[in-house]
Amino acid sequence: MMRFPTLVFDIETLTDLKAGAHLYHLDLPEADLEQALIKLRRQESGMDFQRLALHEIVCISGLWIDEQGFKLFSFSQENLSEKEILTKFLSIFDKRHPTLVSWNGSQFDLPVILFRAMYHGLSAPSLFDQGELDQQKRYNNYQNRYHHRHIDLMDVMAMFNGRNFQKLDDVACVLGLPGKRGESGYHVPEYVRQAEWLKLTSYCEGDVLNTWLIYLRWLLLKGQMSLDDHYHWIQTTIGYLHQQPQQNEFLSVWQKTAQHTTFTSQYFPCTSQEEGSS
């Protein structure tokens, strides 16, 4: 059964060069800082992926679902500072207490939001309280991986075993969903540098939509949604996306990828008939 309201979300980040320079005591021109930080990170961990506290948020996208329907939204640095992005996102939890749905949100998105909110001196008890202020949150809060206030699909689908973690793109592909459509997070810095904000928000929203569609399949698997209700939500999503010009490509790719599995081919029956007659 769908819980209202539900908020599916995702963030996009860049390396915070200023904070990185301060952390490692680097006195370098900005053009050389990123490469220096990458080299230091490789020495520390053997990988390029920066410490969570050094991830500056450039976009947060979400899909809000309640009794009134859908709302797909993005807060980005096109016209907001990182502090303003966080303030707007965190204010959602002051007004409503949605079921949060993410992909890898418990290990990446929420910890980054926590660090960056602290960096800017923000307060977010509605998201981070674990029962100190509201006793009910001792038993159902956004941090505990076994609670249902925040459902990290990567975590629950791996049965909380890190060896079973999968990439969002891979799972979406296997399930007949659009996935990242040839893009990857490596494009994010370039989108920001080139001020291609629509590409950035469309990319982030695409991850949100894939996560939402996997969540619907998860609810079906768990018996928390009937097959008829699942089909209803899929068709409602398709109808909504037809009204979102920035997601035309997502919808177009989805029509094609849906034909890769018997189950998803019913999502776009006209497409199936057209392909069968050609």
UniProtKB/TrEMBL annotation:
Q: Which molecular function term from Gene Ontology is one that the record holds?
A: nucleic acid binding
- The Predicted 3'-5' exonuclease PolB-like domain is annotated at 48-255
The protein's matches in InterPro entries, at most eight in alphabetical order, are given as: 3'-5'_exonuclease_PolB-like, RNaseH-like_sf, RNaseH_sf
Record protein name field: Predicted 3'-5' exonuclease PolB-like domain-containing protein
Q: What species is this protein from?
A: Acinetobacter baylyi (strain ATCC 33305 / BD413 / ADP1)
